[in-house]
Amino acid sequence: MTVTNKDMASYFLGSVRDDIGDTAYWDAIHTNVHFPKPGVCRLHDHCDANMNLMDTIATFMPEAHEAYWSRGDGPEADKIEFYYESLWNDVYTEAFVLMSEEVNGPIPFTTIGRCSTCGTDIVGPENEMFNHHLCGDHA
After folding, report:
1. Is residue 83 very low, low, confident or very high in pLDDT (cuts 50, 70, 90)?
2. What is the DSSP letter of 108?
3. Under 8 Å between Cβ of 5 and 94
4. For the stretch 77-106, what's the b/e string if a residue is b when 16 or more beta carbons lie within 10 angstroms of its beta carbon?
5. For the whole model, what pTM was predicted?
6. Spatial separation of the C-alpha atoms in residues 73 and 40, rounded to whole Å
7. What does the domain layout of the chain look like in residue ranges?
8. What's the Cα-to-Cα distance from 88 to each of 21, 25, 82, 83, 84, rounded to whole Å?
9. Phi/psi of residue 17, each to 5°?
10. Confidence of residue 122 (pLDDT cuts 50, 70, 90)
């Protein structure tokens, strides 16, 4: 069976959701999708998502994980590092696609409040209650 980036991204997001719970998960992915900031992933507001992604790669591609963490110095080590970091970025990029599909998918998102700073609507799944009163620009 061939493992795809989508398989790994789905596993990664599931592991984050298990760690932080539904409310924080929906808040993070909604903010990532609708209030993106370059270089910022809102999953980190609730956990060290890097550990989840590292564990995902170790689960699906243990050889790549082991090679990365045991690499030395030199040209071969640089190739291993480049491969691992490319894999990491590809899986996260696919995870962002999945986040977008979830946020814009079959679970209805509605206005659940207003930002107490700027008055912008806070949107989320209608059955979720968020524990903040700030929109993605101020969260």
Report:
1. very high
2. P
3. yes
4. eeebeeebeebbeebbebbbebbeebbeee
5. 0.74
6. 30
7. 5-107
8. 23, 20, 10, 9, 6
9. -60, -40
10. low
- Reported as a single tens digit per residue, the pLDDT across 34-81 is 888 888 888 998 999 999 999 999 999 999 999 999 998 999 999 999
pLDDT digits (tens, 9 = 90+) for 87-99: 999 999 999 999 9
CA 49 to centroid of chain Cα atoms? 7
C-alpha angle 55-16-22 in degrees, rounded to nearest 5: 165
- Does an H or E element contain 52, and which? helix 49-60
Residue 67, class by beta-carbon neighbours within 10 Å (0-12 exposed, 13-18 middle, 19+ buried)?
middle
